[in-house]
Amino acid sequence: MTWKNISTLTDLEPRTDTGTWLGTSRHTDADSIRRHFSMPAYDESVFDYPRVVPGCLKHARDNSAHSAAGGTDFMAIGPPGAGKSTHALEWSTRLLEVNNRPGMSEAVVWRGSTSRSEWVPLAPWATVCLPASCDVEARLESTNSAGSRSVALEDVVREVRYYEDPRDLFENHVQPGKFHVVYPDPQMRGCQEVYEDCPYEYELEFSDGDPVQHWWTAAVLARVHSGPYHFFVSFIIDEIGDVIPQEASKDAYSSYEKILLFRDTYADARKFGVSVFGYGHSDVDFHEKVKRKVRWRITMNGTANPTRASQVVGVGNVPMNTDLTSHLKTGKCVMWTEQRFCYPLAWGDIPKPTDEELRVRLVPRVPKDPADADAASREDERDARSSSDDAGAGDGPAQASLDDVEAATDGGSVVADRADRSSSTSEGATLDATGGGGSS
Amino acid sequence: MIKSGFDVEDAPSETDDVGASSDTTTDTGAARPAEFDREAVDRLQRSLPETTNLRPAIQKLTSDHVDLLGSFVDGFDSRREFIRWGQRAVILTLGELSGEWVADRAFAGLDLSVLVTSPARERWVDDVEELQPPDRAADMRRGVVATDLTPACSAAVRRLRWSAVEYVSDEDDTLQPDPDVQQHPGMRPSLTEVHERQRWALDRALEGFDSLDALSVWGQRLTEASYAEVPDDLLTRVTVDEAETSRRYLVVSPHDADHGPFFRESFAAEFLLPAFARAARKVAKRAGELAEQETTETTDKRM
Question: ipTM, 2 decimals?
Answer without folding.
Answer: 0.75
